[in-house]
Amino acid sequence: MGRIVVQEFLTLDGVMQAPGGSDEDLEGGFAHGGWSMDWDAEHGDDEGGALIGEWESRTEALLLGRVTYQIWEGAWGVWPEDAPGFEGELTRRYNRVTKHVASSTLTDADLSWKNSELLGPDLATAVAELKARPPQQPDGEIRVWGSSGLIRSLAEHDLVDEYRLMIYPIVLGAGKKLFPEGFPPTTLERLEVRPFASGVTLHVLRRERG
Questions:
Q1: Which of 23, 30, 31, 123 is a good FRET partner for 17, with 20 to 30 A between their CA atoms?
Q2: What is the CATH code for 11-50+58-182?
Q3: pTM for this one?
Q4: Sequence spans of domains, the chain
């Protein structure tokens, strides 16, 4: 069975919006885009980058909400696959895996990034069917990045198996949160907490089911 793993960069106050660029996601007038990149540029992120590279080697499919899909489509979807290092490695992987898109407004004609497909109107059933498929490799994972609204919907149907959170010692006071008010009650088992020299702390949490 496939595992759905949510990976996010978070601030101390739980904000997940636009960590990678100033114009990545301006919804709600968000004015702090690129906060994680700014921190990494100043403090370094060799440990975190290497770990994310290892995680992404397990990615067999991406599961994305509309906003995140469109951001990634205009980035990973057009960046050169022969770029050196980490960028090229992830570009090649993301281009090759299937991108499952949760959206009530997009049509198939709107999906220009290769190997992309819409999930359809019944999100819970479609994702449960994805999870039921045997993984292509023993540690294969269905990866979620960004996609705050999608994550809430997945949690409402108890479909998330694990959260991997890179928590930055930053407080923004505004922006989309991973666990906003009204998020469904969820019990998690802590698998790992690891501090990095940069000041970032990794938290790995698994959904605890009876």
A1: 123
A2: 3.40.430.10
A3: 0.94
A4: 11-50+58-182
